[in-house]
Amino acid sequence: MKRFVLCLLVFLNFYCFSQEETKEIGFIHEVFLKKPKSYFELLRFFKKYNPKVEEINVFLEESKKRKYAVGEIFSYNFLGKHYRKKSLFEKALRNYNQALHLAKRTKNVEGEIVTLNQIGVVYRRQDKIRSALNYHQSALELAQQRKNPSEEMKRSISISQNSIGNIYLTLKQYELALEQFEKSISLHREGKQGNLRSLAINSENIGYAQEKLGYLDDALKNYQLSLKYNIQGNFTEGKIKCYNSISSILVSMKEYEKALEIIEPVLPMAMEFNDMYYLAETYKNLGYVQLNLNKIEEAKKNLKEGIRVATAYKVKTEITESYIYLSELYNKQGDYKTAFHYYKKSKEEEAQTFNERNLLYVNDLITKYDSEVKSNQIRNLARENEITKLKLTRNRNFLIIILVSLALLSVVWYSFNRQRLLKDEKKILMLEQEALQSQMNPHFIFNALNSIKLYIINNEQKNAVYYLNKFSKLIRNILESSKVKEVSLHDELKTMRLYMSIENIRFSNEITYEEKINPNLNIDIVKVPPLVLQPFLENAIWHGLSSKKGEKEVKLSVDKISNKFIEIAIVDNGIGRNAAQKIKASKSLKRKSIGIDLTKKRLQNFTSEYKNNYSLKYYDLKKDGLIVGTKVCLRIPLS
């Protein structure tokens, strides 16, 4: 009988294992059978299964074997979120960066947007505010470019706006944070099941901003509303966060017993959820409630445990607040030396953290700008010295040619030295071109910083942060392009969009800038000199539109004229060349602009290696006999 029971148990165990294995194989098989091309479609598919980490690892390996990029992106993002919840931020970033690289390489915009937001959250958890802002802003810009966004895309926009709001919270800009949260939550007012999480998160964030502004009753209502959404959706993470927030605000209202009733049951919930960020927060809040109820030893134990967890997983905000609470605890005990020790540690931690996320970003950029100008000056002096040496060498060689020619009348020697002269001339041209590009960098940067400075002076922090992000990208593009002889037309247009965005600040964003690109033209393989379009756009703005009243428009189009040429047309609805020339002539200070002349020389040098030359033409646009704008047509040969 015993043998029969034993055999039966072995059989049942084997049967259950086989069923589980079959289920897992069937689960992966079903994915590859449908093989969704859209990232969001795959995301909806996985929501039905709620997969485990082990299953995702298997799915990742299968996706690699089958070269299923969408599956790989999803798997890396899943693993990144898994490690982020455990506060293993380095592992999380490794997985997210893999996903981002794949998404960009395969041009999976949905996957790229989701991944950019996820990376931003990781940096935000670590209080690396600048990195977080850059990633969330990039995700928001990409998502807002999509026409007729899906519910998932709206959620991505909401996440970006919410995250930017949280960055404002960190910087203690609570009014600006509320504006972002209201934008984010407005996308989900319908209250559908799929939007409950966004409603819950934004309601809690609004409550936090209101609490910091002193609106405690309003804050408590929003915390309770957020808790309602989290209970409806059974979101454990959200419930832990809300219970902590409600407990905190009850302490501010001096309702300590109620606060203890709320926070005590949360600790085992946070332990089970195993997110070290929220576990550290729960230990800290429980300890603070106990401190206010004079449960000193219990409070000390929980506050120190909170510091241990926060330190181990680099949760800086919780470390700072826990030190402050421990300082209060020792002060209450009369141990002023220890109280001062923890107070000092709190302030040191706060100073270190806040230095990483302060609003001195502008000063940092200006410092980099000054450093770059000095570096350019040094490089220019070195290049001028090199040019002088080359010219001296050329003259010396020319003299040698004359002497040798007179002495030996040798065609061979003359030809040889002539080639050396041509080579030297080419080096001089290249060095002069590099010098020109480095001189243009300060010109761009100076105008941009002057424009952004006005927002800072006028205390328009929202616009300052937004345009600083644009400005940082523009600086990076300019510095990168100044090191090369040619760039793709795609990169050139991207830089011009940033340039127009910055220049538009000085016109109170009155200029409408449009681009029209032939869809059959691959602008990634078309090569142009870096920053070649900037002087023409600058002329359109400052000579055509600056003196014009009413609507201001600049349109840029790219078309393929033949297999030999592309044509780039820049059209403005400005006052026209004649009127601009009259205005220029009437000014007391006349300064000749050399930007176009230098651009022509650069184009001439650029096309010298091509079979065909470039062409540049200007047209006055007329309507009913009146000048209504200018059109510039630049034809560039294809390789």
UniProtKB/TrEMBL annotation:
The record's Gene Ontology cellular component field reads: membrane
What single Pfam family name could you report for this chain, choosing any that match? TPR_8
Recorded source organism is: Tenacibaculum maritimum NCIMB 2154
- The identity of this protein, by name, is Putative two-component system-sensor histidine kinase
Stretches assigned to the Signal transduction histidine kinase internal region domain: 432-510
Per UniProt, which keywords does this protein have? Kinase, Membrane, TPR repeat, Transferase, Transmembrane, Transmembrane helix
Report the superkingdom from the record.
Bacteria
**From the UniProt record, which GO molecular function terms apply?**
phosphorelay sensor kinase activity
Q: Where are the TPR repeats?
A: 73-106, 113-146, 158-191, 320-353
First-tier enzyme category under EC: transferase
What EC identifiers does the entry list? 2.7.13.3
Task: Give the transmembrane region(s).
Answer: 398-416
